[in-house]
Amino acid sequence: MSHDLRTKYSRIKWRLAARAAVKVLVLGLAMSAEAAEAAEPMKTCFLYSNPIGESGWTYQHELARRALATSMAGRITTKYVENVAEGPDAERVIRNFVQEGCKLVFTPSFGFMEPTLKVARQAPGVTFMNGTGYKTAPNVGAYNARYYEGRYLEGVLAGHLSKKGLAGYVSAFPIPEVLQGLNAFTLGMRSVNPNAQVKLIWVNAWYDPGKEREAANTLATLGVDLLTYDTSSVAVVTAGEEKGIPTVGYYSDMARFGPKTNLTSVVQTWTGFYTRVIEDVLAGRWKSAHTVGGLREGMIRMAPLHASVPPDVREKLAAAEKDIVEGRLQPFAGPILDQAGRQRVAPGQVLRAAELDKMNYLVNGVDGTPPK
Amino acid sequence: MENLIASVLAATIVAGTPLILVAMGELVTEKAGVLNLGAEGMMSIGAVTAFGVALAGGGPALAVVAAMAAACLMALVFGFLTLTMMANQVASGLALALFGVGLAAFAGKPFESATLPMVAPLRLPLLADIPVLGPALFRQQAMVYLSWLIVAAVLVFLYRSRWGLVLRAVGESPTSAHAVGYRVIALRYAAVAFGGAMAGLGGAFISVFHTPLWAEGMVAGRGWIALALVVFATWRPLRVVLGAYLFGGVMIAQLFVQGSGLRLDVPSQLMSSLPYVATIVVLVLISRNAHTIRLHSPASLGQPFRPDA
To answer: What pTM did the predictor assign?
Structure first.
């Protein structure tokens, strides 16, 4: 189809070439725009809060965009702008997207929620999808993933493989999403080894390789025999690799940064979800919703396990994953005690989404400063 | 326990080293009367250059030299703008910082997924076997020892050599220095170039020796901290060293306190700000004598000098 279009283009351009030079330019532009309108692929645009890099949150969205650009070539065209500050800058770029003719805009960052809503009010013909935000509008959908399901599985793995039952956790900021991951990891580890402890260090930065590395080294000195993190650099994985301490990773498959020691990672995979959204918009059946997916929906998956993980642990992990996918295992099922031993979830109860979004405590088993 | 103290000390030295390197360069630059706020940018350029060279198989030594050359070139551009073209030093320095960080991000795109092998530490014979202090001080990477040599060299140069005296004179009163026949602009160029080379060295330490990887923004504000150290240490080299190790020490100590199970009733955010607070408070307290501040601060700092005026 695109080939036909191109021949049509060139025929138009040939005819125009016979005319006066200035007219060619002006008319040519106008006409090619018109010709393109006829069977135009949908322009799908992505806004990233960070540089793309080679691993991490933004990188995972970019992987999805690249996959879509290939798999849906001819039906959509894609465009992205990276490293855009949350706030007025974001609003300006989203507005540009609309002016350039983007019909579907993905804004995967919590800080993009308000700018997205603001522009969306003035662009009713455009569909917006905001990642990790919670507000929706008639033409704005929200989406997020249950990352903690993957964290729980990593905890189960840590429970089996940490001989001392002591893992180290380098964490960014005490906000609910981070606490969910941290607590799920600890609960997973304790589901295997009830005495397991998770030593926690806050670095109070999403991204500071030097500090992340020092925190990992500190935890190693304090005797942990497995490391994990939720900060954005590869520093903890490389520190583990140097010291021969196993790591479990986050955001992307970190195996190539720790070929000897990285056991697995929780990998965010957006391609499937984005494909469904685009198909819905193309077919005109898209409806605004707040979509949350996990292992079952394929929004996250576990990276292939390292060759050193013994077969019986693999089996147990696979069983736990199956249980989560099929809803038999809930990471946040009671009884759950916090650090002080106070009961936060009663036996037989499961935390609901709204309660998860307000999580502000560390569970029993985390050895670290609680959030204030 | 002994082991723990040695670990904390060793990590402190490592955390302080890039700050010392960069701050020594900035101190000499400022002593000559030039305020170059571009340290963060020059460090970034140094870091990305060093990483690129090391990745291409150049080895750490060549990586360090290349980083110093690249950052030095950046500093000379700044020198041309401010010393020859008489542009405003503050504005030019800020521009250099922003430009350097951006250019390093651009140049470093191809390196983002790569990591380097760790550079092995260098055990100093005999000294390395002293209990506690041995593992803390004398089993470090060669760059750490180099930073001590540089501090000693800067001290000797500034306070025990004729050219050091001339350099300080240029920073105090360029008109007088000019009147007795010294080439003020040439000396300032030399000081700016040295500052650039040291910033490049600090950058190389971060990307090749400390965290052997390149990622955009990995300098993470250390250039700005080095700038602040020079001012709070009132332009005195040994106080800069003290400030740098204090900053590194408090940062590492708060990580250890968090991990040690010691529960202080303090939010972790406040703990993270401790290195900044502690360094400023200590340096301000020991340097609060107005007379000595006047004695050590270069009087013509930031002011352009026109030889023919």
So the answer is: 0.82
**Residue range B55-90, pLDDT digits in tens:** 999 999 999 999 999 999 999 999 999 999 999 999
B272–A202: do the CB atoms touch at under 8 Å? yes
Locate the chain A residue with the closest alpha carbon to B18: A210
| Domain at A40-144, CATH from 3.20.20.370, 3.30.720.120, 3.40.50.1820, 3.40.50.2300 | 3.40.50.2300
Pinpoint the residues of chain A covered by CATH 3.40.50.2300: 40-144, 147-268+299-367
Task: Test A54 with B113 for CB contact under 8 angstroms.
Answer: yes
Q: Do B266 and A369 touch (CB under 8 A)?
A: yes
Are A223 and A164 in contact by the 8 Å Cβ rule? The answer is yes
Are B210 and A367 a contacting pair at CB < 8 A? no
ω into residue A335 within 30 of 0, thus cis?
A: yes
Q: In the CATH hierarchy, which fold is given to the domain comprising B2-296? A: ABC transporter involved in vitamin B12 uptake, BtuC (1.10.3470)
ipTM above 0.90, yes or no: no
Search chain A and give the residue with CA nearest B8.
A218
Distance CA A312, CA B223 (A): 50
Q: Which two tokens stand for residue A68?
A: 């879509």
Give the tens place of pLDDT for each residue, B19-38: 999 999 999 999 999 999 99
DSSP code for A306:
P
CATH top-level class of A147-268+299-367: alpha beta
